[in-house]
Design goal:
2 copies of one chain form a homodimer. With 155 residues, chain A is of the alpha+beta class. Chain A is built from 3 helices and 8 strands; from the N terminus they run αββαββββββα.
Chain lengths: 155, 155
C-alpha cells in the first residue's frame, strides 16, 4: 500500500483551505506534522510525523501510525510498548501540512522516556537571563527499560 | 541578535532528555516545530515553526514569534492582524525538536483564513472508502480581507 494514492492533489489554494478533499502537503521528506493530544485532558502528548502510508493507515484503522525519521520506518504507536493510541478525532489545518489527533492513550504514557507526555519540561518565558528548564508532570509513569528493553532506540 | 547564542549545545541524549538546559534540536532548515494551544479551551490553534531567533524572542518577550517558511522571514504573530499571542506557558519535548505554547489569543482568531483555529476541518477515521473533510467550528471569526488586505499572503 503506497498510501499516497488515497489522497487527491490540490488544484488551488482555495481548494486546499476551503475544500472538502484531503490533499496533504507533504514536505520534501514526504512528511506532515502530527500533534497528538489527550482526548480527556487536552494536554499535548507528542509531536511526530506521518508519511502518506502512516496517514492512510491512521485514517483506515483509527489507530495512530507514524513515520520514524530516526529509524526510517513506518511505526504503529505502541507496537513495542503496547501504549497504542485510538483516534477520537482527526483534524487537518488550513494549508494541510499538519494534522491534529485527539487520542485515547492506552497504558500509562506516550513518551519513550516513561512520562505520560513528551512535554514534561517548561521553559520560563519573559524573565530575562539564562534559561533553566523546570520539570512539570515529569514523574515517570512507567519504566522504559522494562517496557522497551535496554537497547531501546527512540521511535 | 542571532538567537542561537542563547542556546547551549547538547552533549548527550541524557542531557537532551533529562537535563535542565534548553538545547533545541533545529532541523536542516534551522527550525523547530511549535504547537500553539488556546490556554482557555485547550484547542490546538496552529502549528508553525520557530528558528533560533523566533524562539529566543518568544522566550524573552513572552509573545509568540515564528519563522515563516513561505515568506522566509521572522514573524511576530499578530504583527499584521493585531491577533497577538501571549505565552502563558512554554514546554519543550523529550528530544527538544518541538515546543508547545499555551497562549492567550488576542482578537477573534489565530488562522489567516479568519477562523479561531487553523484546524477547522475533521478527517473521518475508521470508516473506509473515500475521505471527505467535515467542517467543524469553521465559522469565520473575522474577515481576512478586511484584516490583512486583499494582497494577504499566508504567513
Amino acid at each position: 500500500m503506497s498510501g499516497s494514492s488515497l489522497f487527491a492533489k490540490a488544484e488551488s489554494t482555495k481548494d486546499v483551505e476551503d475544500g472538502r478533499a484531503l490533499t496533504p502537503k507533504f514536505d520534501a521528506d514526504g512528511l506532515v506534522t502530527c500533534v497528538a493530544t489527550d482526548a480527556a485532558s487536552g494536554d499535548v502528548l507528542m509531536v511526530a510525523h506521518m508519511n502518506a502510508e502512516a496517514l492512510a493507515r491512521t485514517i483506515e484503522t483509527g489507530e495512530a501510525w507514524y513515520y520514524s525519521r530516526s529509524r526510517g520506518a513506518l511505526w504503529r504507536k505502541g507496537e513495542s510498548s503496547g501504549h497504542t493510541q485510538r483516534v477520537v478525532e482527526m483534524r487537518v489545518d488550513c494549508d494541510q501540512d499538519a494534522v491534529w489527533i485527539r487520542v485515547e492513550q492506552a497504558g500509562p504514557g506516550a513518551c519513550h522516556t516513561g512520562r505520560r507526555s513528551c512535554f514534561y519540561r517548561a521553559v520560563p518565558v519573559g524573565r530575562g537571563g539564562a534559561v533553566t528548564l523546570e520539570f512539570r508532570d515529569a514523574e515517570r509513569a512507567f519504566d522504559p527499560a522494562a517496557v522497551y528493553g535496554a537497547d531501546k532506540t527512540k521511535p
